[in-house]
Amino acid sequence: MRFDLDPRSGRALVSWTPPTDSLVEITAYNVSYQITGIGDCNNTYRGPEVSVDIDPRDSGLILEDLVPWRKYTVRVAAANVGGFGDVQEGVFISEFVGKHLL
Fold it and tell me: What is 2-101's CATH topology?
């Protein structure tokens, strides 16, 4: 999983590589993300989880209205007729000025 942060817009592009071991066609992706910390501190803060279903032809999603200096956890799972497969998980810190502070 890859994260490309736009330091002034409060947005991040999350992209992933489609699974290569599937013998069945992918019918959708589910992307969920939430704030799981403040800055790089080890804490237990959890924000509400946002979940989005994505077209199977896409391999990325722009996350908008991110809060500066928060740790985000992102999960991506591919689905086929049998249900959802393994979850890819990644973490990034929104280390940018963001439109909230402009």
Answer: Immunoglobulin-like (2.60.40)
